[in-house]
Amino acid sequence: xxxxxxxxxxxxxxxxxxxxxxxxxxxxxxxxxxxxxxxxxxxxxxxxxxxxxxxxxxxxxxxxxxxxxxxxxxxxxxxxxxxxxxxxxxxxxxxxxxxxxxxxxxxxxxxxxxxxxxxxxxxxxxxxxxxxxxxxxxx
Length: 139
Known about the structure:
By secondary structure, the chain is α+β, with helices and mostly antiparallel strands. It has helices at residues 3-14, 31-44, 121-134, and strands spanning 21-27, 48-53, 58-64, 75-88, 94-108, 111-117. Strand 2 and strand 3 form a beta hairpin. The longest helix is centred in the N-terminal third of the chain and has 14 residues, at 31-44.
């Protein structure tokens, strides 16, 4: 009898959706060309590169979003984080992967806390523009 509420709770948890937006695909561009394009486009879209690895062809960028507001005195800022990874594949093309996440940052006496939230349409449009410019065959 006690297992029934637990099973129901697990069923509800399994129905939850993902908060991030991810794409994977292939671009005909060479890895270096796709990487340089990604750097330019992220800057043009208002992202600030927070990490990059020129050897493994990975970039992490963040963009502040002033529309992400919370009625909480501990709230500091809202931002979008996009991670891009480019890998050469056997056919001479490049595998192009993007992951977009949205966070709310809170500050308290214990330090900084990040809370992931659903990616808004405006951030998803930025992701689509990046893919259209640098990896048109990625989906």
